[in-house]
Amino acid sequence: MGEHLLNRLFSSARVIVENVLAGVKRCRIVKEVLRLTTAGISDRVMEVACGLHNLRVSCRHPLPTFDGVHSHSVTP
């Protein structure tokens, strides 16, 4: 019983990770072979792609602030 539950938890986590990676790979530069050989550039490209993914997700499901207004709205 315990092993079945553990496998189910791992499976759920794996699905979430696979979905996130698919979202990050919407950036074409991440899908293809990166031919830039400058040290650290591939890590930077992945960081930017992850940041863009996080921005897209946060705009899709904005977090409410303490006053109940969505975090993406701007008040004058």
State Rg: 18 Å
Number of strands: 0
Strand count, sense and closure of the main sheet? none
Shape: flat
> How far apart are the termini?
57 Å
Layout of SSEs?
Elements: H1 2-24, H2 28-31, H3 41-60
Q: Would you kindly provide a written description of the structure presented here, covering whatever features stand out?
A:
- The chain is mostly helical and 76 residues long.
- It has a domain at 21-32 and 39-59.
- Helix content is 62%, strand content 0%.
- It is built from three helices and no strands.
- The chain has helices at residues 2-24, 28-31, 41-60.
- It is flat and about 50 Å long.
- It starts with a helix and ends in a 16-residue tail after the last helix.
- The model is unreliable at 71-76 (pLDDT under 50).
